[in-house]
Structure formats: structure tokens, C-alpha cells
Amino acid sequence: MTATARPLTRTAVAPGRLATYVLLGAWLAHVLVIEILFIKYGKGKNSILTVGKFFGLHTALIMMLQLTLVARVPWLDRRLGMDRLTRWHRWIGFTLLWTVLTHATIVVSGYTALGSEGPWDTFWSLAGVTASMLGMIAASIIVVVAALSMRQIRRLLGYEVWHALHLLLYVAVGIGLAHQALEGTTFTQSTAAEVYWWTVWVLVLTALVVGRIVVPVWRNVYHGFRVAAVVPEADNVVSVHVTGRHLDKLPARAGQFMIWRFPGHNNWWQANPFSLSAAPNGRSLRLTAKAVGKTSAGLRGVPVGSRVFAEGPYGAFTTLHQTRPGLLLIAGGVGITPIRALLEESTEPSVVLYRVHSEAEAVLLPELESLARERGARVHLLTGRTGAGSPPNMPFAPENLAAAVPDITERDIYVCGPLPMTEAVLRSLKALGVPTRQIHAERFTLA
């Protein structure tokens, strides 16, 4: 199987930076419009409730941004990567939590100032009003999910449990929209302002539904993914070859990953993000997985011919971001899978550094060496325990990287492996003065 080489294209602005500018610019422009409209139409029943409306409005604005970040808009995903978008989503989510709590507290205070009851009685009076009750339910869901997303609690939950609970946020969004509609938005005094507000909501929700539901379902119906072969690569590593119809139409690139489900073999809710371990060739796809969990461990028993449900391709770990003619590809353990695909696709002078504890753990090494011979690339297998021996074995120390690849600052560098290894490499690259634009690293994870 041969992959189609993609031409190297360089742009004045890096794709990731361009996407950040576009996303941030569009968001700030939207916020500016809303701020102007709020100044004109946002006055509440008293000054306290005006502030409460301000925080309520910005709660909705943050929800719009949150949904956009997880809508899996292809243009954004290919340039920013799901890991970065998910990280932004997480941190902005805590901003949403505090905005919701502030809005609720100020609204209760505002109505308390208007009436003769205390704050607690005012709270229960508002709970008896349908619009307010819906807002309270939405806020409660957000608070619960945010609490469960704290790292200390999140580690105690399995991914499937946490993900199912996290989906309640979509329920909160729906209830929140009903709350807005019944309360009357800030902009009911202006037809144009109200049309603008709800049009943006429709666009955001459409992007979410299309990206998360319509496109994945359509692609699976159109391509009809099926298991073509299951090949053990080592005692705890297996490759699954997937075929289907019209795979030349699937916009996949070397370095990307897909979210895989194997209905009938695993439960529907069990999914894993596995990288493509071979460059897409228009006829088949391949994933290679290490047995680290129930889903990946069971792949060896997936029946040939069985249906596969795949979402994607996703990720920005591709040569779309390449800026220099030479490549340095650094992999650790099973992180070799997207690195191997990138080497297959590339026609650039390449060096591969493959870090494993022992040569027996170097899965796909024969394929790497064969590809390297075909492309005039170099493969260095880095074995041994980090820190062992005298002098200590430190393959990714700045001086060792510079010795292995003297022209390292002239190359684009792609790094994929365990988090400690990736962070060590990134620190060394920074110490060596490699420009940030030439460094590419992405975590392949669902959460």
C-alpha cells in the first residue's frame, strides 16, 4: 500500500495561529455587538437586577463559545486540534460556573430589594415561577457537572460514567434556552436585536448538531466501515485494518486520529481515540492499539467483517502545520502510530527518534526501517531506562538531542508519546531555541 504524498504548503500565518485569530476575532466582534445592545436595551427593574441581567447575558455568551469549541468544526479542528479545543472548553467551563452562580445570587438579591421578604423566602418565591425554576434547574446541572469535572473527582470516575454525566450539560443548555425564551431576552424591545441574538444561537446549535451527529452518521452510512483484518503486532499490541466504500473521499491525513466503536464486540458507549497508524491510501485505514483498557485489550478478538462506527478524522497533528523542509519525528511507545503514518506520507528529509524501554517493545519497527530505506530517512531506536547507568541515560536532554540531530533548529518536530516524555522533549526543544512554530505535539484523548 502506498500513500499519496501531499505537497508542503507554507503560509504567512501558521494555520493554528490563523484559526485562533479567526475564532477570537469572531467571538470578540459578537461580544462587542451584545455589549452595545445591552447598554441600549438592558436596563432591569432596579440597578441590582440590571447587573443580574448582565451576568445572565454573559452566561449565555459563554455557553455559545463552549458549544462552538466542542462542535468539532472541521476547519477549526484541523488547525487547532481537539486536545487544544477541549482544554479551552474545560477552563472556560469553570468561568461559566462562576458566571452562573453570580447571576443567580444577584437576581435573588435584586428581587429581595424589590419586595419585603428575606433572601431565602425570595428564592423559594422565584422557584415557584416557571421561567425562574427552569433557570435554577439549568444552573444546578451546571454546578453538579462542574464539580464532577474537578480533577480529584474526575479521576475516581470511569470515562463512560463521566461522559454520560457530562452530556447533562446539553440538557442544561436546552433548559437554559427555554428559560431565556420565557423570561424574555434583554433585546425584546428591538426586533433586529432579538433576531440577531436567536440567529447566533441557531448557528451555534446547527454547528453542534451537524458536527457531532449529522456528519458522523452520514459518513458511516456512506463509507460502511468494516473490519478487514486483525493483525497482532506484539503480545499486547494489535492492528485493526478497516475497509469501506469510497474511502478516497474521506478527508483523512497522516497523523490524525478517529474515535472508534466496535458494536457487537464492545458496548456502544465504549469508544477510543486511536491514531491512524498508516497514511490513508483511499482503500483502507489502519489503527494500532496497545492493550491498556477493556476496549483496546479486546480488539484482538474483533471478528473480521464486523461493522465499525468511526468518528473523524480529527486532529491537527499533520503536515498542514509544517513550516520547514526537514522533519524530526519523535515517538514514545505506542505513540509511534501517528509518527509512522507521517513518515509514510512525507517526502521530506526525515529523522525518527523512537523511545522504548527495550527493542522487544518497538512495535512497527520493521515497517519504520523499511519506510526509512525507501525515503532516505534515518531511524534511531532509543532504549534503556531513563536515568540509568553512568553517565545517566537521558536521550532527550538538550545536548543529546543536538548530537543526534545537529540541524534540529532547521526542522519541524512532531512529538507523540507519554506525557512525561513529551514534556521532557518540549523543555529541551525550548532550551535549544527551536521556534515554537516548528514544534507540534498533540494529546490523543477524549477528555
Automatic annotation (TrEMBL):
Organism: Phytohabitans aurantiacus
Domain FAD-binding FR-type: 220-320
Top-rank taxon, per record: Bacteria
Subcellular localization(s) per the UniProt record: Membrane
UniProt topology in membrane: Multi-pass membrane protein
Keywords, ordered alphabetically: 2Fe-2S, FAD, Flavoprotein, Iron, Iron-sulfur, Membrane, Metal-binding, Oxidoreductase, Transmembrane, Transmembrane helix
Name listed for the protein in its UniProt record: Oxidoreductase
Transmembrane segments: 21-39, 51-70, 91-111, 123-149, 161-178, 198-218
Main localisation: membrane
Cofactor(s) recorded in Swiss-Prot or TrEMBL: FAD
Any Pfam family the entry gives: NAD_binding_1
